[in-house]
Input
Amino acid sequence: MMSSKPPNRPVAQGSEPRTLSFQVCAPSTERLDRFLADQLALSRTLVGRLIAEGGVRVNGESARASRALGHGDLVEVTLPAERPARELTPHHVPIAVVHEDDDLLVLDKPAGLVVHPAPGHWDDTLLNALTARGTKLSSGAEGRPGIVHRLDKDTSGLLIVAKTDAAHRALSRAMSRRKIERVYAALAWGHIDTPLEIDAPVARHPKDRKRMAVLAGGRPARSRVEQVARFDACDLVRVRLETGRTHQVRVHLAHVGHPVVGDPVYGGGGARRATGSQRAHAREVERATPRQALHAAVLGFHHPGSGEWCQFHSDWPLDLRPALAAAAGDSALLDRPNLLHYLGFGE
Output
């Protein structure tokens, strides 16, 4: 695609920024941000920031992220100086490994565990736990080695971690091309009797940078929602992601009036939304819900090494079983094995 091969990790190591220049050899390319993320092994977030800040020029001029490149185009990418990497200190917590091979791991992340170091959580994250385990990790983005995608702190479920740079590039490319299957189980307030196709752009909330919101001009975001089981005050739903934006499931369900039960940010009043005879039951469900009732239950992808289709499943977590039992009014659900399968989630 390019006239010269970029280094494996082209982020400046010294105190000065540097510029990479190359010409496109292919007749045409996909949009600029995806092309650079793929060719330079950078995260889409970093590439988007570089473009927005004028750090990418095509034929001497600033370019939009959506621009397609053509044969002979001269691309210049100015990479910022890299700050000294923060060392990952070991943090000994149990990690549930669903699958592991030379290229990757699939983990079942518990709720309450942050995926990568960030302000407030520098030393007690999933990456710190993997460091304690001695797991080899790909280079990845700065401060996020191995991280292909994330789950919110209080969302549980399946997560891929790359162990090699080649696997990371392949999985990131599959993620950007929507080739990775991600399906969530959630308890949502109200009833979704008809399947929903939610196509609503997501961006940072203009007044609260810790929140996301459906906003015109945001990044495209699409989710498909289906009812799995109907209870008195809420539903168990299946949410299939077609994109992967920050807080996407929570924001989209709140946007259509069915926020995730137990969500402290997008819950929209929680049990107070219920009226009449449902109010008491809704309060009972809310009391039994220790955190947002959201779980990454299915993860599927083509293996970056063999090309084989891999699919993994994670059952409804133990800490959320009282919430589901309260919603269904059936205490037998507390101990039933393969609970999601029993309720028809995989059908």
